[in-house]
Each structure stands twice: as C-alpha cells, then as structure tokens.
Amino acid sequence: MTTTTAPVSRLSRFRRSFFWHSFKRDKVAIVSFAVFVAMALAALFAPAVAPHDPYDLATINIMNSELPPAWLDGSDASFPLGTDAQGRDLLSTILYGTRVSLLIGFGAVILQAALGILFGLLAGYLGGRVDAILMRIADVQLSFSTLMVAIIVGAVFKASFGNLMFGEIAIYMLILIIGIAEWPQIARTVRASVLAEKKKEYVEAAKVMGFRTRRIMFRHILPNTLSPIFVIATVQIANAIISEAALSFLGLGMPETQPSLGSLIKSGFDYIQSGSWWITLIPGLVLVILVLVINLLGDWLRDVMNPRLYKG
Hints:
By secondary structure, this protein is an all-alpha fold. The chain is built from twelve helices and no strands. It has a domain of 155 residues: MetI-like fold, CATH 1.10.3720. The relative contact order is 0.13. It is a multi-pass membrane protein.
C-alpha cells in the first residue's frame, strides 16, 4: 500500500506547488483573483454590506429618484453612487444585482458541465450510434448562436408563463436556458479527451479486471479529463453572465423589480439623454470589470494547465 500511494501523494504535492508558484509569479492573475474575490464577497454578503435594501419598498422614496453620485452637485451623502429612476440606492442595487448575475452564471455553468460531461463521456467511450446521435445534436445546436437560442427559448417561456409568473421564476429559467444553450462546447471537449484516454493502458487494465462501464467512465477516465473542463467552465461563467445581461437588456431576463447587472443597465438606458448617465454607466462598468477578471483568470488557468503554452 505504501509503495503505491507514495508516488501519488508526491505527484499531488508537486502539482499544488507548481500551481501556487505559477500563481505567485503572475501579477495579472493575482490582481484579477483579488478583484473577483472582493466583488464576490461583497455580492454574497450584500444584505450586510449594502446601505439600503432595494427589495424593501418601505425604504424607497420616489422623490429620491435620479440623484447623482456623491462627487457631483445635487447629490445626497446617503446615496454614494446616486439613485435610479425608482429612487433605489444604486450601490445597493449593484451589490444585489451582482449576486444575482453570479448566481445565474455559476448555476448555468454547473448545468452545462453536468450535461456536457455526461454526453461527452457517453459519446467518447461508447462511440457508434450514441456518438453519432449526440454529436449531431450538438452540431445542430452549435449552428445557432447561443444568444439566438436563448432569445427563442426565453421568449417561449415568457409567453407561456406570463410576465408575472416569469418574474418569480426568472432566475431558474435563465439558468436553464443558458445552461441548455451552452452544453455542446463542454461535451465536445470531454469527448475529445475521452477518445484519447480510452486507448491508454489503465483503461484496458480496468476492462480486464471486469469493472463496469459506468465505473470506468466516471472513476477512471473522467478525473483525467478535468483540466480542460476547469478552463472552459471558468470562461463560460463570464459568457453566462454576459448572456444574462443581454437577455435582461432585451426584456427576456430579470425584471427591473429584481435587480441584476443586465436589468440595471436596461432600466437606466432610457435616462441617458436626460443626463442620468450613472444609472446605466456604473452598472455597465461593474459588469465589464467582473467579466474581464473572470476571463483573465480563465486565460491564466489555461496557460498553467497546458505545459505547451505555459512559460512562467
């Protein structure tokens, strides 16, 4: 037992040390990670951090609508980033909206990964008709843009449930819509990795020992295909957040009464020409920063997990 576990433990320690060493040497990754953690923690603890509760109608005064940020004339010190057209504190709505956007982003990617890993494993390992059917379905879905699929499905759901009912289940619907629209990319990546792994000796040894197909796929092959999945999942979180913002801006996402970064941008778009630019610009800037740091972390993760690309 000792002779078999010692090399594995040494290898795992080497991987952790290499990962940590590469992270410490990459200043862009450090700054991106710090910004992302700060934004995620602020969004997670929004009820404790936010100065106001945008869901509490009793605290909202329409007379405070369109107040400018604190550094402009006519501002109110109790609203550091100003207010929106409904009189809600913009800082509070951004914190709550970032939490909603992150929830949709992570939820959609978890659904994408679950579908993509399952279908990719089945297609790559079983091959034959299963591979042909699943990959043709993926090809058909990839022939349409993700946003187009999301718009069509979102419009059907909204027409079926109505605006009131859709607003109550909007978060779950957006996770479902974006997750279903993006699974083929993960599935194709997993399939390619499985095709390479199933020809190796450890898989043949597992077959000779009489292990079941499910155990070989999930306990032997899947752990060796996780590196590209982590990279894709990181980038897909940013894509899912952008998709949510786009759908909300088009009126097919989160309603204005439940702030997300996309719905906040939409709610202030009509007030740009009247001079209340901060209602759209500040949430838009937060969205850009959030997506940027996630993409930068994804690029760093891709370089580290691919020895041919990493030059740290």
